[in-house]
Model the fold of this input.
Amino acid sequence: MTEPKLPDAPSTARNREPILRELQRLLKHSRRVLEVGSGTGQHAVYFAPKLPHLSWQTSERAQNIEEVRAWLAHHPADNLAAPLELDVTGQWPELAVDTVFTSNTLHIMPAAAVEIFFRKLPQVLQPAGQLIVYGPVKINGEYIGPGNAGFDEWLKEQDPLRGIRDLEWLDTLAADAGLTRTENNFLPANNQLLVWHKAG
Done:
């Protein structure tokens, strides 16, 4: 029987190992992770079995959630729950997690949605919890690598509300939500893995 063709985000295969190395360190003491914007679900099905001590909760907007369901159906894991419908600008599910993880989302969301994302984090993130964000950012207004400048231009051509965000702006949004940045890890392909912690 031929396995159905699953949706594919090619960048996942390239970035999953560097991200996993950081997550194995950062999630040692985590028990429940909410992934916001799971995309195709490829990250989740790769990470969850390698982090068996925790529960990995996927989420996506309603129009994209079937892709996540398809990947989870073909690559199930005991600690991988069915995806939740979550639009960051709408009502969030009633959850209590110690980590929120999101990958390659903040430059895709409109800036107003990024603001709402940070505002709503305290609803689900427990005291001493952490936010982990993977993707490109600007630091002091400067792109990390020349490729990101072209990528930012392309994003804004697709939608003027998209774009690579300034780290300082994200820090301000995080501070308003009661979070403080504790790490900025430089990963391949001019991406960062950023960590903010909520006060305990």
